Amino acid sequence: RNPASVRVVRPVREGVISDYTHALKLVDRVLDTATGIGRSYGFRPAVLFAVPSAATGRERREAHQAIRRAG
């Protein structure tokens, strides 16, 4: 249950991106949390991500693009 003032967004469903804009924000937030302020000084973390084997080529490209744009 969620308060009426909170909107729940699920940018990733069944392992694939369903909402690209919010998925990008999610990845960016995770990288900020994991690296702290280091990213603002040019530090680029090595990132490993996985997509389901059943994902289409488009879904794989979207995941890769979201990671690249976030970091």
Task: Give a quick summary of the entry.
This protein is 42% helix and 6% strand. The chain has 71 residues and is mainly alpha-helical. Strands 1-2 form a two-stranded antiparallel sheet.
Helix/strand/pairing category: mainly alpha
Shape call: flat
What is the CA–CA distance across the termini? 33 Å
Along the chain, the helix and strand elements come as: EEHH
Instruction: Specify the number of helices.
Output: 2
Instruction: Report strand %.
Output: 5-15%
| Sheet with the most strands, sense and barrel status | 2 strands, antiparallel
Order of strands in the sheet with most strands: 1-2
Oligomer: single chain
Low-confidence stretches are none
Q: What's the Cα radius of gyration?
A: 14 Å
Residues in helix, %: 40-55%
Number of strands: 2
pLDDT averaged residue by residue? 81
Characterise this structure.
Helix content is 42%, strand content 6%. It is mainly α. The chain has a two-stranded antiparallel sheet. It is flat, with a radius of gyration of 14 Å.
List the helices and strands and how they pair.
Blueprint: E1 12-13, E2 16-17, H1 20-35, H2 57-70
Antiparallel strand pairs: 1-2
Helix pairs in contact: 1-2
